[in-house]
Design brief:
Number of strands: 9
Shape: globular
Distance between the termini: 25 Å
Structural class: alpha+beta
Strand order of the largest sheet: 1-7-8-9-2-3
Helix content: 25-40%
Number of helices: 8
CATH class of the largest domain: Alpha Beta
Radius of gyration: 20 Å
CATH architecture of the largest domain: 3-Layer(aba) Sandwich
CATH superfamily of the largest domain: HemS/ChuS/ChuX like domains
Number of domains: 2
Order of helices and strands: HHHEHEEEEEEEEHHHH
């Protein structure tokens, strides 16, 4: 974010009304604010702030039925239509292992959440939108015609935050990992042995937890026959 004075909630709402076809992400950039701040400004006007309780969200979404899961960054948009089923909850990571929606989620990254309703002609488009501490979008869930509206409304009511102010505090930067432990705290031979015996990608985090390593440490230590550093221009 730049250092200019940020617009007040009523100014953000006016900008949204004046630019109805501009995507939220693009309009937020034009206003010099995060997307979370843009959405928060509409609390009480088609937006309800919800608590980003990832485990409760994931377990409640299955009853909503068919939805569209959306994750994006500056380079790509990933959309999948399906059901949030085969959910595995957890404090440090959570998973959705459904036939169509397959996710790995780090709950501590999710800082802000909103239930959003937007009128589109005679229809109402509904979505759940979640953001990191810097106000950047981390995941969105869009309802579809086949979605169970009652289950969705019940989930929103369960997650609704007592704070419905039209502002949100965001940090200057995105999420950063906690300080890494020394590589010397883990045995390389043990790491390589466990890595060689992995038969499913879902076993990876269990291995890291046992060895008390984060992903970058493990990839740095395991050796180039298993993981190697790419040039930054490779992507």
């Amino acid at each position: 974010m730049d250092q200019r004075v940020k617009p007040a909630p009523h100014e953000i709402r006016r900008a949204r009304a004046d630019n109805p076809k501009t995507r939220e992400r693009d309009l937020a950039a034009q206003l010099g604010i995060s997307e979370a701040e843009l959405i928060a400004a509409h609390c009480g006007d088609g937006v309800v702030r919800v608590e980003p309780r990832v485990n409760d969200l994931l377990t409640g979404l299955e009853a909503v039925g068919e939805v569209m899961a959306l994750t994006r960054n500056e380079s790509a948009v990933h959309e999948k239509i399906g059901v949030y089923d085969k959910v595995v909850t957890g404090t440090h990571n959570a998973m959705v292992l459904g036939e169509n929606i397959d996710l790995r989620i780090f709950p501590k990254v999710w800082a802000h959440g909103f239930a959003v309703e937007k009128r589109d002609g005679g229809d109402i488009r509904r979505s759940l939108q979640f953001f990191d501490a810097a106000g950047g979008a981390v995941h969105k869930v869009h309802l579809r015609p086949a979605s169970n509206l009652y289950a969705y409304q019940k989930l929103v009511a369960e997650l609704e935050s007592p704070n419905q102010e039209p502002t949100v505090t965001v940090s200057d930067g995105g999420f950063t990992d906690e300080a890494e432990a020394s590589d010397a705290s883990a045995d390389v031979d043990d790491l390589r042995d466990r890595w060689s015996r992995l038969t499913d990608v879902h076993q990876f985090f269990g291995m890291l937890k046992t060895l008390k390593l984060d992903r970058r440490q493990a990839m740095r230590m395991v050796g180039q026959d298993y993981a190697w550093l790419l040039d930054k221009d490779a992507v």
